Amino acid sequence: MEQKNLTATVTEFVLLGLTQSPELQRFLFIIFSILYLTTWLGNFIIITTVISNHRLHTPIYFLLANLAFIDISDSIVSVPKMLLGLLSQHKTISFNECILQMFFFHFIAGAMVFLLVVMAADRYVAIHKPLQYLTIMNRGVCGGLVAGTWMGGLAHSAIQIGLVLQLPFCGSNVLDNFYCDIPQVVKLACTDTYLFELLMVSQSGVLAIIIFILLLISYTIILVKIRTHLTEGKRRHKAFSTCSSHLIVVTLYYGCSSLIYLRPNSINLPDSNKVLSLIYTTVTSTLNPFIYTLRNKEVKEGLRKILGDDEEKSIFS
């Protein structure tokens, strides 16, 4: 595989991709093309349904629509490049394009991390302060919280990429992955990266695992509250269903990100990195619409109104 001269500045990276087998590449191209289209379709349906149905103009659905937008944005950053790579044996990405990909990937991923925290807080208020819920989570508060998630993602990404740009790249240019990400790129720097790795682990890995633990504790408290204080069957079932859905996505997202960014670069497990990266970048964005929203009764009713009564009977009967 191509490598640059050890004294030359790296101007592009070679991506090894998911596999070197042409037959397997074609099969994976079909699978991930379907997943990519499903991600777009599922999340677009959620956004359209929430916008068009006034009954869904509530804090939780506003947050879910923003999550759907983040899922679409996240898939755009890495999946198209992966699909193109599956059609080619020679996969390259320019240095500047690699930096941009990492910037937007961590920008959107950071926004996702903070939005999941906001959604947990929303559920906490809804369960513990039901009478004051709409007053506390009013439109201005929700808008400010969502804006804060994007600002938090921007700050996180700017810090990470700013540190990467300080590193010299003058040796190997081969990345054993299907997209550019900071842990793999840092390993190619022709200088000691120990301090940078510590900063990366502390900002990405440790922060992710701390938030993950806090979210698990908060959802446990919420579920205990639901079990002990809600007596109405339908209401309890709906609350359990919503919180358990949130918990599944939180576990998938934070679990994978913690394993990717907490592991030191000295531990090189390329196959596990690729599997975790696929779940982190592709699978969660596809599953989110089904886990969170499309099995939700209120969203189904809103979708039925968009499709019309005739189509409703054939699709939802």
TrEMBL record:
<keyword id="KW-0297">G-protein coupled receptor</keyword>
<feature type="transmembrane region" description="Helical">
    <location>
        <begin position="99"/>
        <end position="121"/>
    </location>
</feature>
<feature type="domain" description="G-protein coupled receptors family 1 profile">
    <location>
        <begin position="42"/>
        <end position="292"/>
    </location>
</feature>
<protein>
    <recommendedName>
        <fullName>G-protein coupled receptors family 1 profile domain-containing protein</fullName>
    </recommendedName>
</protein>
<dbReference type="InterPro" id="IPR000725">
    <property type="entry name" value="Olfact_rcpt"/>
</dbReference>
<keyword id="KW-0807">Transducer</keyword>
<dbReference type="InterPro" id="IPR000276">
    <property type="entry name" value="GPCR_Rhodpsn"/>
</dbReference>
<keyword id="KW-0812">Transmembrane</keyword>
<dbReference type="Pfam" id="PF13853">
    <property type="entry name" value="7tm_4"/>
</dbReference>
<dbReference type="GO" id="GO:0004930">
    <property type="term" value="F:G protein-coupled receptor activity"/>
</dbReference>
<keyword id="KW-0552">Olfaction</keyword>
<dbReference type="InterPro" id="IPR050427">
    <property type="entry name" value="Olfactory_Receptors"/>
</dbReference>
<keyword id="KW-0675">Receptor</keyword>
<feature type="transmembrane region" description="Helical">
    <location>
        <begin position="60"/>
        <end position="79"/>
    </location>
</feature>
<dbReference type="InterPro" id="IPR017452">
    <property type="entry name" value="GPCR_Rhodpsn_7TM"/>
</dbReference>
<keyword id="KW-0472">Membrane</keyword>
<keyword id="KW-0716">Sensory transduction</keyword>
<feature type="transmembrane region" description="Helical">
    <location>
        <begin position="205"/>
        <end position="224"/>
    </location>
</feature>
<feature type="transmembrane region" description="Helical">
    <location>
        <begin position="27"/>
        <end position="48"/>
    </location>
</feature>
<keyword id="KW-1133">Transmembrane helix</keyword>
<feature type="transmembrane region" description="Helical">
    <location>
        <begin position="245"/>
        <end position="263"/>
    </location>
</feature>
<dbReference type="GO" id="GO:0005886">
    <property type="term" value="C:plasma membrane"/>
</dbReference>
<dbReference type="GO" id="GO:0004984">
    <property type="term" value="F:olfactory receptor activity"/>
</dbReference>
<feature type="transmembrane region" description="Helical">
    <location>
        <begin position="275"/>
        <end position="294"/>
    </location>
</feature>
<feature type="transmembrane region" description="Helical">
    <location>
        <begin position="141"/>
        <end position="165"/>
    </location>
</feature>
